[in-house]
Design goal:
about 100 residues; mainly alpha; about 60% helix
């Protein structure tokens, strides 16, 4: 796996965990002292993640940093890129509050 592929895989692993926690990018970034645009670049693999910020992200996801790296190394990147994102639900559930 190249460095670029590892950054991309790590971003996908981070995104999946954040989505599992039902957090938006904005909420997660704010809670962990980062700007949403910077954090979004990390999830897309567009930014070289510093160790300091990597540890902050791991702590925010309540996972050891080693698990994030291990999961990224094991990730089937091509398959993961085809998977649909699982964004956290916002607002009312579909069908609620409908006027009749």
């Amino acid at each position: 796996m190249t460095h670029e592929e590892l950054f991309l895989a790590l971003g996908l692993v981070i995104r999946r965990r954040r989505e599992d926690l039902k957090l938006t990018q904005e909420a997660f970034a704010h809670d962990n002292g980062m700007s949403q645009s910077y954090y979004g670049k990390l999830e897309r693999g567009d930014h070289n993640l510093t160790l300091w910020n990597f540890l902050r992200v791991a702590q925010g996801l309540d996972l050891p940093a080693s698990k994030l790296l291990r999961d990224a190394e094991k990730l089937d990147l091509q398959r993961a890129l085809l998977a649909a994102p699982r964004p956290p639900r916002r607002g009312r559930p579909p069908g609620s509050g409908r006027r009749q």
